[in-house]
Amino acid sequence: MKGFDLRYQETRIHFGDRSVEKLKGYIQKMNHVILVTGKNSARLSGAMDDVEKLLKEEDVDLKVYDNIRPNPTTEIADDLADLLREEKPDCVIAIGGGSVIDTAKVASVIAIGGGCAEDYLRGRKIGGYLPLFVVNLTHGTGSEVDRYAVLTSGKIKMGISARYPTASFDDPRYMLSLPVKQSIYTSIDAFFHAYEALTSRHSNPFVRTLSLDSAEIIGENLPKNQDIEAKRNLLYASMIAGISLDMSPAHVVHAIEHALSGINPDLPHGCGLAMVGARSIYWIHRHSEASKEIIQKLTRERIDDAKSAEDIFKRFLEEVGFEERLSDYGFGRDDFREVEKIVFKDLRYLLRRAPFNLTRDMLIDILENSL
Q: Does 1 have pLDDT greater than 90?
């Protein structure tokens, strides 16, 4: 796949092998930057070394913040924002997946606009932000191209419209170090970005084009050996699904997953989506004609009705090696009431985008079938 540059909204996207080298053009007149990462992935992928080399060549001073963990909290975003206010960098460079990128988005807003992360989750208006450059490390987040950020406050995991990155670098070489499970999780995350965007009340013809292409590419590449060509394709599918999600946001599946991983932060986001996704598809399919088309694109199998859509998606998950259940993460029927409360109270804004009204009975059915 040939590399390319794309302008979407406020973000300049650089896609392709060694696209990270284009970061050099953005930092040439800078003096001091903050690198934001998790504990291991930035170094293991080779991205950290490449970025540090570019900064050294341009004689740019750097400081590393590597305290980001999966399902990041508002406290982590506030801690990073404190560092940004203290250091006064010329920009922030986020090297990681969705957790790193989302935390950097919110912290870059706090550093200029004041307040704390909780304020913005509760509706405080954005008052400016530091330049943010994103070196993406997963083929699932979409956060390198969309305006959203997701943080957890207490047990409530919420998404906000935070900001677009200044520029993002989708370099498939960095995907080769993804563990097999993470490759599956992040690809399923990208699929549900496409699926929910297409079946949302806000969908449009452009979303349809991107979502269907994304699903087809994921279906063709996820089961294969994860060589560089497969990674290029999956990364492209994730990026265009991220644009779909930005234009037509997620709804039921993400609402349920956010409730679950808010309760148990050790639940990886894509894993949670996969676990509740099959039965969620059953209910969404009954209310959305678009569901049939995108499941067929993913699986290349004929879909007759909602039950066949669910069963065929389950079979797809089995074929790519996904077998986990909610019970593997300690969830049981005793947790249903807490999940219900979070979904219908704190995350009801997500449900408004769905093509139908999710009921309590439907939610319990989805959870029961995911245990």
A: no
Q: What is the pLDDT of residue 223?
A: 84
Contact (Cβ atoms closer than 8 angstroms) between residue 76 and residue 107: no
**Amino acid letter, residue 125:** K
Q: Is 132 helix (H, G, I), strand (E, B) or coil?
A: strand
> Of 307, 305, 310, 364, which is closest to residue 332 (Cα–Cα)?
364
Please report the pLDDT score of residue 225 as a whole number. 84
Answering whether pTM is above 0.85, one says yes
Query: Containing H/E element for 64?
Result: strand 61-65
3-state secondary structure 164-218: CCCEEEECHHHHCCCCHHHHHHHHHHHHHHHHHHHHCCCCCHHHHHHHHHHHHHH
The Cα 93–Cα 77 span in angstroms is 15
How many beta carbons lie within 10 A of that of residue 168, not counting itself? 26
Per-residue model confidence as pLDDT tens digits over 136-177: 999 999 999 999 999 999 999 999 999 999 999 999 999 999
C-alpha dist (Å) from residue 94 to 44, 59, 231, 304, 356: 15, 19, 20, 44, 37
Q: Are 253 and 196 in contact (CB under 8 A)?
A: yes
Number of Cβ within 10 Å of residue 28's Cβ equals 11
Q: Which domains does the chain have, with CATH numbers?
A: 4-174 (3.40.50.1970), 178-368 (1.20.1090.10)
Q: Which two tokens stand for residue 141?
A: 């987040």
Determine contact, residues 84/111, Cβ cutoff 8 Å: yes
Distances (CA, A) of 194 to 23, 136, 206: 28, 19, 12
- The burial class, CB within 10 Å (0-12 / 13-18 / 19+), for 49 is exposed
